[in-house]
Amino acid sequence: MTNADSPDWNAIVAALNSYLRLRTIPIAMKMFSEVTEIEVIPGLRRPGKKHTADQIVGQAARLGWTVGITGDDLANRQCAGVLGLIEQDDEFFAGRDYAGVWWATEEDAAAHQRAMDVVPAGRYGAMAVSPLTSGRLDPPDICLIYATPAQMILLINGLQWTGYRKLEFSCVGETACADSWGRALATGEPSLSIPCYAERRYGGVLEDELLIALPPHMLPGIVDGLAA
Questions:
Q1: Using CA atoms, how far apart are residues 83 and 196, in angstroms rounded to an integer?
Q2: Above 80 in pLDDT, residue 3?
């Protein structure tokens, strides 16, 4: 699935690591219309049981695996809904299961559900993640990078080196994947998040890590900015 016109991801990741000393693997995420499209990806793993999306992303970022899923592979509707792999119906936007857990009332829970950036339902039937350097998801829709605050501000400095603009991010609280990969997939904007409880519990995210999701075409410019 390698695109001959794509950037040299190995060189880009090597440069990021030389400037930032990242502890995890920069990964690619790609959405697919049909599950048959992920079945031909070299080295693909499919979950043997239900997972959260945080676990799937963590397997790529921390173990270097290439993993593909459909909505049926996910343990809850929240994960599938953020990725647009299920219908985002009235039940999804009501969020009643979270009232008294993360938000005081059903009204608060529903307000949270409506505040999330999500991939519109009906576009995609599957998702895959893989180390960016594998080239297996080339071209990726977005890339994900975990970093400490010190590393992250340098990455953002690199991003803002040319064509400066103020970057604005969001925080919905729990279900922070809506602030990172949900927002980046839905809008194409660089999307920084404070990983939530679920990402730390199920995805292995460390307590001092932030996550940024951004279109991969921005990475060469970030490297140039870091070098400058």
A1: 17
A2: no
Sign of CA dihedral 207, 146, 198, 214: positive
Specify the residue for token string 């977005």. 142
pTM above 0.90?
Answer: yes
Structure tokens at 224: 């140039």
Residue 213 sits at the vertex; the CA angle it makes with 211 and 219, to the nearest 5 degrees, is 110
Q: Per-residue pLDDT tens for 44-101?
A: 999 989 999 999 999 999 999 999 999 999 999 999 999 999 999 999 999 999 999 9
Can you read off the two tokens belonging to residue 84?
A: 């647009």
Contact 116, 99 (CB under 8 A): no
What confidence tens digit (pLDDT) does each residue in 172-208 have? 999 999 999 999 999 999 999 999 999 999 999 999 9
pLDDT digits (tens, 9 = 90+) for 23-44: 999 999 999 999 999 999 999 9
- Sequential DSSP letters for the chain: ---TTS--HHHHHHHHHHHH--SS--EEEEEESSHHHHTTSTTEE--SS-B-HHHHHHHHHHH--EEEE-GGGBSSHHHHHHTT-S---HHHHH-GGGBTTTBSSHHHHHHHHHHS--PPTTS-SEEEEEEGGG-TTSSPSEEEEEE-HHHHHHHHHHHTSSS---------SSSGGGTTHHHHHHH-S-EEE---HHHHHHH---TT-EEEEE-GGGHHHHHHHHH-
CB 118, CB 84: distance < 8 Å: yes
